[in-house]
Amino acid sequence: MKLMWTCVGLLATIGAAQGDVINVPLLESLGNADDANLRISNDYNDNTGDMFVGESGNLEVLLRFNLPTLPAGAVVDNARLEIYVTQANTPLTVSAHALLRNWSEATVNWSNYSAGNPWTTAGGLGVGTDHEGAVAGTLSITTTGYTNMDITTQYQQWHTGAEANNGLILLSPSNVAGFNRIGDINGGANPVLVVEYHEVPEPASLAVLGLAGLLIRRRRA
Description:
Elements: E1 3-12, E2 17-26, E3 33-39, E4 44-46, E5 51-54, E6 59-65, E7 75-88, E8 92-98, E9 112-114, E10 117-118, E11 137-141, E12 145-150, H1 152-160, E13 168-171, E14 179-182, E15 192-199, H2 203-220
Parallel strand pairs: 1-15
Antiparallel strand pairs: 1-2, 3-4, 3-6, 5-14, 6-13, 7-12, 7-14, 7-15, 8-11, 8-13, 9-10
């Protein structure tokens, strides 16, 4: 599964704002992203094709993006996941939680987060040990097409280094028996991380700009 992130930068200036847009694909082939689809039966893990959620909580998705490098002092205004639903069999709401385990894409499964290292609770369901109890974002699946999940607060924790970036686990409600498919095995519509930020001018830069403005006003006077 190919993953992608997009950065939208807003450069703060005095009296005007200059937009800056960066579109960068984040590909597993470059070692820049991890994903896994876990299923309770047979310790199933598929990280090569489409991803499924549902089946009374017995299908889970793990996602981890390498964070884009932002300018020093950049402030994150918004971060969201854009996920394409390719098959919507049953309406459901998926909740995302920050993972607390440094899982391995190659060896993670329902029992272990890496080879020989078991989850506290199978399926990574240990609250406070395998994943955080707080909900990082929710994803409502009702039809096919793109849908968004706001993860701004969680992303800010990763960006500032307050929390390690172990990615997210997408959990489905236990009372919904159907399943839905997200992503595109042909790489046409894969999860996208969109980050919006702005740069804060250095104090020295503000002082120079302020002095320049003062001189201009004096000359006009």
